[in-house]
C-alpha cells in the first residue's frame, strides 16, 4: 500500500511565525506559508530558526529538525513542538513576528482506510501531531491518546472525540493507550488503525493489530538530517530490506515491519 504525496517546492522557504500557543509542556507554532502547497496528513517539514541557528559559539544547533504537520490550510501551517534538546528549545522560544526556515512537505502520507473500515487514531506524546490533520482530512470519530501524566494531557484539546490514558493514572484511563486500543478492537475489529508516537508504543500497536489481522499504518520517527534521502541517517529495516524513512516513509504499512525499531 502506498499513498500519493504532495511534492515540496525546490529549496527551503523563509516564513513568519503568526502565533505561539502552549498546551502544558507542548508548544504549537502557527506560521504563514502562502507560497507552499497544502500537505497531506503524515507528511513532515524540516524546520530551522531563521536567526540564532548555528554559526558560532553558543549558536547550536546547525541541522534542521523534522516535524510532522499538526494542521494546515489557508496558507498556514501548524507544528507541535516539545523542548527536548538545543534545536527544539530554540524553536520553542519563537514567538509571533519571528521567522522560520521550512522545507516541505516531505515524505509519504497516510492513505485512506481500506475495505470500508473506520479509522481509529492512536497517538502518544508529541506523536499526536499528525493525527490532528488526519482527523481533519478523514473525519475519524475515535481518537485514543496517551501521555505521561495529567500535566501533558492539555494537548488533547487539539483533537476531537478523545479517549485519554495516562501512565500514572492522573487523568483518564490509568495505564497505556494500547490498552484502550485493545478495548476498541474487541468491540469492533473492522477498523484501520493509524498510529504515531514513541517506538515502544508503535511496536505494541503493531503486535495488537497483527494478532487481530487489523490493518495499521504507523508514522515512524527516526533521526533525519536532510529530509530528502541524501544522508541515509534515517534508515530502518523492513521485510523488503532497508529503506530511508524520509523518502519511503515516515508512514509505513505495519505489515512491512518485522518490528518497530526501538
Description:
- Helix 3 packs parallel to helix 4 (199-212).
- It is globular and about 55 Å long.
- It has helices spanning 86-93, 129-138, 177-187, 199-212, 245-248, and strands spanning 13-23, 26-32, 44-49, 65-68, 71-73, 76-82, 99-106, 118-124, 143-147, 162-166, 173-174, 191-196, 216-219, 235-238, 241-244, 251-253.
- The two termini are 24 Å apart.
- A hairpin with a 2-residue loop joins strand 14 and strand 15.
- The longest helix has 14 residues, at 199-212.
- The chain is of the alpha/beta class.
- The protein has five helices and 16 strands.
- It folds into two domains: 13-106, Translation factors (Elongation Factor Tu (Ef-tu), domain 3, Beta Barrel); 118-256, Rossmann fold.
- The strands form three sheets. Strands 4-3-7-1-2-6-5 form a seven-stranded antiparallel beta sheet. A seven-stranded mixed beta sheet has the order 11-10-9-8-12-13-16, sandwiched between helices. It has a two-stranded antiparallel ribbon with strand order 14-15.
Supply database-style keywords.
Elongation Factor Tu (Ef-tu), domain 3; 5 helices; Rossmann fold; 2 domains; 7-stranded mixed beta sheet; 18% helix; alpha/beta; 262 residues
